What we know:
By secondary structure, this protein is mainly α.
Amino acid sequence: SNYxxxxxxxxxxxxxxxxxxxxxxxxxxAFWAAADQYKTAASMDSSVAEEANQKLTDYASQxxxxxxxxxxxFKEGDSYxxxxxxxxxxxxxxxx
Length: 96
């Protein structure tokens, strides 16, 4: 329950499977789901917090851009379901 490495691995798996999600926008939503896992890892296991926070910083540049989010009638902060093998609810984010 407090083994952060499992959450890091799950986040990495989400990113590795993104090519199965369809077009570019959907593929980039895998980074949202992964970010949720990295945040959980950092908050529950101090031994992986630095690695998790580095991944959060590195992968934020892979989020869909603000225009892609806007033109799909989504809003930052709203809930979004990443489909496919990920099948997770997450929060919409965009790179600035």
